[in-house]
Amino acid sequence: MKDRNASALKEWAAIEQVLATGEVSLLLRKGGIWERREGFEVEHREFWIFPTLYHQNPDELAPQLRWLLESARASHPGPDQVRISLYLKVEDALRVESIEALQRLEGLHPLTQPTVEARFAYRNKPYLHALLVRAYRVPEPYLLPNTLDYEGCISWVELDEALATHGALPVLSDGEFAARRTEILDRLGEAGVVRL
Prior knowledge:
Helices cover 24% and strands 35% of the residues. It has one domain. It is built from five helices and eight strands; from the N terminus they run βαββαβααβββαβ.
């Protein structure tokens, strides 16, 4: 793990919370509206989660996780600040070009199946990036000013300062994460899956 890092991935605050509990270790990404024509790219293998309330939609979140929407709103510091507390390491980055493979992952990521299918087909480019991530929590969250530099429908932002990862602890034990990783990769299979 890097000692310090300024790279951050914008993600729904509710998804940040479910990653922090260890219930989920898989992110499915396509790209924001302001993203380059190619869409989302795996630009970093280690990064902070930049939690956002924008575009959080209860209909797109798995039903058993919808309670996190209210929890995320309640713990959000407000529009002028951002709370950074979760660090992710990408253990596997995959481009999934098979909707059948993605269907086999239901229950292992935080989204509903209709949302997965809509994102898969977005911009007539049938694929999604699947990031199998290991989550780490820092002992004390960082509270940063939410500047104009962080606005927009983009995936990646560079924080104004590189934040220290010292003291960050994994939310899952090595054994728990290994079992989760095996289950995800076994369910996914190899057909229509490209390792990045």
